[in-house]
Design a protein that fits this description.
The protein has helices at 24-34, 54-59, 64-71, 73-80, 103-106, 112-123, 160-166, 176-181, 213-224; strands spanning 3-7, 39-44, 83-84, 95-98, 127-131, 154-155, 186-187, 198-201, 204-207. By secondary structure, it is α/β, with parallel strands linked by helices. The protein has a seven-stranded mixed beta sheet with strand order 3-2-1-4-5-9-8. Strands 6-7 form a two-stranded parallel ribbon. Strand 8 and strand 9 form a beta hairpin. Helix 1 (24-34) packs across helix 3 (64-71) and helix 1 packs parallel to helix 9. The radius of gyration is 16 Å and the shape is globular. The termini are close together.
Length: 225
């Protein structure tokens, strides 16, 4: 059975002091697509019980899978046993998946252990995937020649327009779309904000926003089969 590492943020505050963390449906929806078919471990910079964005619990309180995820005993156990990124061996996994939320833009891009993990996974020929703000965590991942894993590749993620509409731009250190275009990535997005968009460019799989989370899980599962 293939193995996937879900990576979460350990950040619980934005630059403006608001509560943040990982965004609930962006973990829940891919998890339930993948869980019947792959082994899943959880990890975060600080290890166990990474903080969830409380706003996402409220926003998705009527979303069946999000509610199930928060009450799932298997999921609770995975969170309680979540590895520190420093304890992760890239060779143990066939794919790595970054859950979004503003939190991942706060800590993961600036975490050297995280950058090495992404680079190791990529250089081992494995799959790197992320949804919404998750691609921000990947900005320091490089190939064997030291080039960004985004260079010359198509990607998607939370767009500048969506950031503007949600009013979150001041709470994070950079805009994902601009930053990754600056690394040589070719940004694509849904025709309308909040629309579903998933890009598969070789071993790089990205989704635009919360609505794209299930489709990212499906794309990742297909790539692993």
């Amino acid at each position: 059975m293939p193995s996937v590492l879900f990576v979460y943020t350990s950040a619980n505050k934005t630059l403006t002091g608001g509560q943040t963390g990982w965004y609930l449906p962006e973990a829940a929806h891919p998890y339930y697509v993948l869980a019947p078919h792959v082994d899943i471990d959880f990890a975060a910079p600080a290890g166990p019980n990474p903080p969830v964005d409380e706003g996402s619990i409220k926003a998705f309180e009527k979303d069946e899978e999000s509610v199930k995820f928060m009450n799932d005993e298997t999921v609770k156990s995975k969170f309680a046993k979540a590895k520190k990124l420093s304890e992760v061996n890239a060779k143990d996994y066939d794919a790595i998946f970054y859950v979004g939320g503003h939190g991942p833009v706060i800590d993961l891009p600036f975490d050297d252990v995280n950058s090495k993990l992404i680079s190791d996974v990529w250089q081992n020929g494995k799959i790197v995937s992320a949804v919404c703000h998750g691609p921000a965590a990947l900005i320091n991942g490089v190939d064997a020649d030291g080039k960004s894993i985004f260079a010359g590749r198509k990607f998607t993620g939370f767009s500048n327009k969506e950031e503007e509409l949600s009013g979150g731009g001041k709470s994070i250190p950079f805009l994902l779309e601009d930053k990754i275009i600056g690394l040589g990535g070719k940004f694509e997005k849904a025709a309308e904000p909040w629309g579903v968009k998933v890009i598969v460019d070789g071993r790089l799989i990205t989704g635009q926003n919360p609505a794209s989370a299930q489709a990212v899980g499906e794309a990742l599962l297909k790539a692993l089969q």
